[in-house]
Amino acid sequence: MTTKTAPSPAAAPPSTPSSRISINLRQSGIYVAFALIVVLFAFLTDGALLQPQNISNIIVQNSYVLILAIGMILVIIGGHIDLSVGSTVALTGAICAVLTVQWGLPWPIAVLLTLVAGAIIGAAQGYWIAYFGIPAFIVTLAGMLVFRALTLTTLGNQGIGPFPDEIRSLSNGFTGGYLGNIGLGPLGGADLVSLLAGLVFVAAFALSQWRKRAARLGYGQTVDPMPLFVLKILGVGVVVMAVVVQLARFRNLPWVLVLLAILAMGYSFMANNSVFGRHIYSIGGNLQAATLSGVKVKAVTFWVFVNMGVLAALAGVIFAGRLNQAGPTAGMAFELDAIAAAFIGGAAVQGGVGKVVGAITGGLIMGVINNGMSLIGAPSEQVMLVKGLVLLAAVAYDVWTKRRA
Amino acid sequence: MSEEILVMRGITKRFAGVTALHDVSLSVRRGEIHAICGENGAGKSTLMKVLSGVHPHGTYDGEIVFNGEPCAFHGVRDSERRGIVIIHQELALCGQLSVAENLFLGNERARRGFIDWNRTNHEAQALLDRVGLRENPTTPVNDLGVGKQQLVEIAKALSKEVSLLILDEPTAALNDDDSQHLLDLLDGLREDGITSVIISHKLNEVTRIADTVTVLRDGKTIETLPAAGLSEERIISGMVGRDLEHRFPPRTPDIGDEVLRIEDWTVHSPAQPDRVVVDRATLSLRRGEIVGLAGLMGAGRTELAMSVFGRSYGVGISGRVVKDGAEIDTRTVQAAIRNGLAYVSEDRKRYGLNLIEGVQRNVSAAALGKLSSRGWVNENEEFTVAERFRRSMGIRTPAVSTQVGTLSGGNQQKVVLAKWMFTDPDVLILDEPTRGIDVGAKYEIYSIINDLAAQGKAVLVISSELPELLGLCDRIYALSEGRITGEADRAEATQERLMQYMTRGQNS
Fold first, then answer.
1. Nearest CA to CA, how far is A133 from chain B (Å)?
2. Domain match, B93 and B69 both
3. How close does chain B come to A127, measured CA to CA in Å?
4. Same domain, B64 and B124
5. Which of B210, B240, B270 is the last residue of a domain?
6. N or C: which end of chain B has fewer CB within 10 A?
7. What parts of the sequence cross the membrane (chain A) (predicted)?
């Protein structure tokens, strides 16, 4: 097109990478904080934090909150909140128990039906929020009470268990030592399959990053300089392999870790690269502008809550399997952990901002604090105090960097 | 007392590497109306924020002398105590509270911590009389129009015993009547000895009311001129640094067949479903044609446009939208976009942009489908598209990943336009496309509109500025009280004629 313009705007300055780097600094604050917290507790616990069994414990103990955090960050990016996930965890755990223990359905069918139940729970709330226009805070506050009540009805006020072994191993189990162990010198024996899985993961990550970089270069975009790029890949590789080696030395990879890795990658990609994910960001960023841009605002909001319901059901199955019993108090206050994880991980209260990986990191920060403080024998009131202050500090940091920008 | 009430010398203000003000000087004589003109981003608002203490002493270099005394304000309260009151472009009123409560907010008429309502309302009435606002002090501010709210702001300033009143774009959101009233009021305040500094893009108002004009450009003081005998063109040449021979880029219309026809379009208000907002409006657009839609505030222009575009406004809508001879579905925004319509809102921050996202994601927002296959977005293609629009439209941004909220108004408007151009529509409805943007950027927007028409698209421009419509459009419809009351083509359209149509009541 011709731009015959008055004061020489055609000579707009070329893109410079400076702003990109400063944005990255703000977002990377959470990872730096996580690293510092890990180092701090490793030091305070004389390394007990990083022992193979303990790393395994941290992952298994926090898996359900991390799964909830993935769903919650999408809800929060969309500008909403979900207070009902704790009750949904309890209700779906109870449903799964009834299906397997009382009805004797095969476990895959029972799990599938439980996820469908989660979807229905999400759809019921999504309907009131998206199509009826009631604030999510109210709808899910009601849901929190209703689903807890339904849990009690379903369970008849008592716990139901035990669960089939397959469900229990999804929560507590580990991948088998299919190829045996290999020696790692002073570290002792480690499971070969786990190590290979770790290496494949790192290689795939490096390859995908490399291809992304090449594609960006092909389109003439600015990219991180090569040394920084290599450093990032190396950093991720070292951290992943360190965790994997420790796990391989203990009892191989927990199945929930495999599940979590798949969910984290899948949802990250979905949030950034799918039309649906982009629409969630645009709705949270500016609802009216999204509406006038032809985004199906109601449908997107509805499906975000359906998705939250499914993930809560997954968390419900895993939590019940871990305790080997569906109980009436399951999932109490999980919604608060999931919400805190999302905000520690950089989400904004107004919506439109946040990352899946950030929410998982936020959840891990709380998990490490929980675990590390219990290792040094701190009483639970201190753990609560520290977690509260960390949440406040994380959001204060976020507000501060925004104000400075 | 010296003749100068205010002298600012050598003011330099930097934001994170960007110099917003560079050695700016301003001197205002006691009792005058001093206008500050400049493009967006020239530093006008920043200068006023330095003066009023929004940017506290110590965050800038230079000195401020007010009433002969050097000043070091640490906040707005400091400057207000000295009698400097700033009224921002975005009004700062609490809509749920009454006029009187707003007037004395933070400055309550109280006795031992309890509000003295009699005194509050009595004094409020006196202030309202002074600004010529005939409203009850107990009316909630939300019930008043923007023009009256502006008067409430001024009354609030008067309650603080103001000696220097700063108004940032006071008439930007007002219709002609309200603007007129406001300017008369400033005239009156001048006679009462109140000095005013007014920032305005409306140069006709500046030349009418101001005694002195200071022009800023790129954060520097360019010149200070006495306003007597000053022409708008003279001010513009100072603002843009060269003469603008024409305010509108030249264009040779190439008009084809009718592409869109809106027939018998009727819309009711969602707040009062029995009130007709658009009344049996019929209008048509042809390929390559730029059509104007003129109307006073409240005539139903935006309501007409938004109701056509996916029924985004209004209830009880009836009528037909015909495109290329066949009736089309415009009941949802998706359908409207699919059928080749685009609507650029008058309020780009509220309805047009996701301010916390980058240029790239804003440009793609209305047509992500074009950049994706099976639901997955190709970010590299998206980047390329954003870069292409950045270059072709001259969007001044450090990078296409830069947050749109940090760009100037003109550049934000280009991003919104780019967003809709990327949907490749046949018909664009542009609602106040140059509101709140500076003269240079306006020229660029006009060029873009001309290009769109040259590509064979039909463009409907809604504008409150009649000269803009006259300079830009091939044909102009006038809307009054929801009805199309007249139509004039380029040759026969004049401001007087349009104004006649626009003020035609239901009975004529």
1. 16
2. yes
3. 19
4. yes
5. B240
6. N
7. 30-50, 62-81, 101-121, 128-147, 187-207, 228-248, 254-276, 297-320, 332-349, 356-376, 382-400
Is A313 contained in some domain?
yes
In a domain, A5, yes or no: no
Q: For residue A404, what pLDDT band results from cuts at 50, 70 and 90?
A: low
Of A300-314, B239-253, B257-271, the range with the lowest mean pLDDT is: B239-253
Closest CA of chain B from A254, distance in Å: 31
Contact call for A289 and B401, based on CB within 8 A = no
Whether B295 contacts chain A with CB within 8 A: no
The total domain count for chain A is 1
Per-residue model confidence (pLDDT) at position B157 = 87
Rounded mean pLDDT, A210-228? 86
Write down the pTM of the prediction.
0.80
pLDDT attached to residue A55 = 92
Task: Say yes or no: B180 and B301 in one domain.
Answer: no
Asked if B212 and B232 sit in the same domain, the reply is: yes
Q: Tell me which of B240, B415, B447 to substitute to probe the interface with A (most A C-beta atoms closer than 10 Å).
A: B447
Question: What is the pLDDT, as a whole number, of residue A26?
Answer: 57
B351 to chain A: which residues are within 8 Å by CB? 288-289, 292
Contact A281 B447 (CB under 8 A): no
Residue in B244, B351, B399 closest to A16 by CB? B399
CB within 8 Å: A289 and B353: yes
> Which of B423, B438, B455 is the last residue in one of the domains?
B423
CATH code, domain with B56: 3.40.50.300
CB interface of B with A, residues 340-379, below 8 Å: 343, 345, 350-357, 361, 365-366, 368-369, 372, 375-377, 379
Nearest CB to A10: which of B16, B394, B399? B394
Range of the domain at A108: 30-40+64-173+284-404
Please check whether residue A183 touches B, CB under 8 A: no
Q: Enumerate the residues of chain A whose CB falls inside 8 A of the CB of residue B240.
A: 6-7
- Chain A interface mutation, best of B217, B236, B252, B368, highest count of A Cβ atoms under 10 Å: B368
Better-scored residue on pLDDT, A248 or B146: A248
Split into its structural domains, chain B has a count of 3
Q: What percent of chain B has pLDDT over 90?
A: 48
Test A292 with B343 for CB contact under 8 angstroms: yes
Q: B73 and B110: one domain?
A: yes
